[in-house]
Amino acid sequence: MNDAQLLTLTPEIKDQLRKSSQDHKFTHGHALILCGPTGHTGAARLAARGALRVGAGLVSVATPHEALAENAAHLTAIMLTEVDTPEALTATLMDARITALCVGPAFGIARAGAFLPAVLAANRPTVIDADALTTLASLGFDAVHPACVLTPHAGEFKRLFPDIAANIDAAAITGAPHSKIDATRAAAKRAGCTVLLKGAETVIASADGRAVTHGAVGGRAAPWLATAGAGDVLAGMIAGLLARGFTPQDAAQTGAYLHVEAARVVGAGLIAEDLPDAVPHVFRALGL
Ligand SMILES: NC(=O)C1=CN([C@@H]2O[C@H](COP(=O)(O)OP(=O)(O)OC[C@H]3O[C@@H](n4cnc5c(N)ncnc54)[C@H](OP(=O)(O)O)[C@@H]3O)[C@@H](O)[C@H]2O)[C@@H](O)CC1
Ligand SMILES: Nc1ncnc2c1ncn2[C@@H]1O[C@H](COP(=O)(O)OP(=O)(O)O)[C@@H](O)[C@H]1O
């Protein structure tokens, strides 16, 4: 079943991206980005900058004590909060003004195993990416809730949904009708939440069967996105949009669209750090 819509930004989504002069920062939510240990903190900062640039009112990096100084040396507008244990995370999340989470970028697989139950128990809109996806592959989907967005690349998708991924490979050989869209839909249904399968063709599907496909090809090609950390920025952008109150499907779709547009603004020579800083140019071009 390949009746997925092609992704465009609707006038309603553009309106939702705007900020009004009546707003204050808490109107646009607070995204909390979980950070890994010393020496592995860059990915969380990339995500945090993505979240702030798409308009989250506040963004904090939740860092282990050992990485406080490392993070502080790099961050200014983005805030820091010390979180060493899952219990400390649960205590931090007593603040209901934290409206979205992002877990996974360079977080560490063992660390993700320890923290994921507390993350999911918070029942907050949450992007689950990178190492947290690898952990989810062994943890299973029981605790995953509908406000989650899973953002696997093809390798992570294979780890999470090996049987569904095998169907795509089989289709390539036998010509059976099982596309990337079918696969993402099946994955979203199984996980019970929104799934965004990354790539030059990105597919976003929800558990209710909605699916949208976004081709960064032809006139919208963005091959320089094939660079380390580009996915971490996307995870942060989606978390920022979730923090602002976008639904999981809309946050994933809008994040994917803005991510490719930001890459197209920068063009050849793009590195992941450039993506968040290109977002204001994209917003200007969109007339926001
Ligand atoms: N600046 C930073 O701090 C950065 C930190 N990072 C952090 O590093 C951690 C590891 O994340 P990761 O994604 O690099 O590695 P991993 O989870 O082992 O999977 C890779 C394997 O999967 C496969 N594969 C298949 N299709 C694929 C595809 N489309 N895209 C990619 N891979 C694909 C492929 O296997 P192959 O197909 O070659 O057999 C490949 O060997 C994670 O925490 C992440 O956040 C990075 O984000 C970089 C910037
Ligand atoms: N050739 C390409 N054309 C368009 N987008 C791409 C291409 N290669 C990668 N991307 C995008 O770049 C991002 C890479 O994410 P990921 O593989 O998770 O990298 P990382 O883990 O290094 O951040 C994804 O959003 C993916 O859709």
Automatic annotation (TrEMBL):
Binding site for (6S)-NADPHX: A43, H153, D232
Keywords carried by this UniProt record: ATP-binding, Lyase, NAD, NADP, Nucleotide-binding
Keyword rRNA-binding: no
Gene Ontology process terms (BP): metabolite repair; nicotinamide nucleotide metabolic process
SUPFAM superfamilies, A to Z: Ribokinase-like
GO molecular function, one term: ATP binding
Cofactor(s) demanded: Mg(2+)
Stretches of the chain forming a coiled coil according to its record: none
Homology family: Belongs to the NnrD/CARKD family.
Complex and partners: Homotetramer.
Task of the protein: Catalyzes the dehydration of the S-form of NAD(P)HX at the expense of ADP, which is converted to AMP. Together with NAD(P)HX epimerase, which catalyzes the epimerization of the S- and R-forms, the enzyme allows the repair of both epimers of NAD(P)HX, a damaged form of NAD(P)H that is a result of enzymatic or heat-dependent hydration.
Name of the protein described by the UniProt record: ADP-dependent (S)-NAD(P)H-hydrate dehydratase
